């Protein structure tokens, strides 16, 4: 008798209609759960914005991350009209790709490229379009599909970014890069418009904590996690030579440690029962403990009360996982990661080693490796010399590497930072993805109240000669 009653209650919901108690039919019960948990029909629509900020085959993993994230959201029930994808789209059919038209994100992974919307590709992957999409501002777009986040006050937004970064900046495959103050301003404007209920932001990039550190206030109903804190690098994974290496025909890293950690976790569990906070703890442990001396500290910012939200509120959930219970210590494997900033060198070296002696491919790999190393030495030496010219030989390095206390933003004057980056690059060539590591050094120059004339003079003196290769080009350097 009791069992029968529980069954009826489990299949039906008691509600008051026109003053009368009525027993809802099972077909109507879904509306109740929608109202309580939000499946997109009553509580609000789920939106996903996915951005890969790089181009070039050596950066394969960033577009692989984003394609994988699309497949996850799609299986979770989000519609293509509510998923907006930014990717340069030069990987799947790249001459280097051993499986044309296919992208994988793990050694035994399935094709994650199939079906991915090509909303903003090539030179349409811009800061302007990205911010316009978040804000739902179609009039501000230049090129692309025209899709924007046309969200309402009950909607939930998930944003995922994967690429290189530096203190206070996120890389883009086109000029200019995205600075933290611009992103935070857009998020504040989005909140002021009243067009979302809550927003979750995941960032894969070196020093990604600096994007929110001291900048993202509470009260915006935004919860953010980052692959690293404000001072450290993030890590690529599934790389050649790893204990979980890609197939032998691949000579590049397939994914990023933080990114594959949250996605592989999401694929494993029923996201109706796993919360954002639970996933954060699992990803934090896996990323921090992956390999000795090769790990980063996953961070969280903003409104931490959202940690209690089920992940399904933002990503949906795959019905195939409904029978899976949440395991505090799951079976996700760890691997030997590679520093994000060295993954390109690993690719060039693997390419060189495996190419036939005397072949055009071997010569190309040797040239790529030599040019990348020459560029790095040029940037290292130039920044160091600029610091010595501005602060003196003894104090130069100390001033450039100074780190502000936790909770303080990178720089007081963001316009100064952007201006001084431009000044340096005018005389010394592109910082490129590698040189983003020196954003803190340039920010410290601004914080020291150095004048633009002093910065220009020091940069001109430091860079009498600039190596002639694509990494130093102001056009190619930003996309390298």
UniProtKB/TrEMBL annotation:
Domain Legumain prodomain, chain residue ranges per copy: 367-463
GO molecular function, one term: cysteine-type endopeptidase activity
Entry EC number(s): 3.4.22.3
InterPro entries: AE (IPR043577), Legum_prodom (IPR048501), Legumain_prodom_sf (IPR046427), Peptidase_C13 (IPR001096)
Active site (catalytic residues): 164, 206 (nucleophile)
One of the GO BP terms on file: vacuolar protein processing
Signal sequence coordinates: 1-19
Gene Ontology terms: cellular component: vacuole
Enzyme class: hydrolase
Coiled-coil stretches noted in the UniProt entry, renumbered to this chain: none
Keyword entries, A-Z: Disulfide bond, Glycoprotein, Hydrolase, Protease, Signal, Thiol protease
Family listed: Belongs to the peptidase C13 family.
Name this polypeptide is given: Asparaginyl endopeptidase 2
Source organism: Petunia hybrida (Petunia)
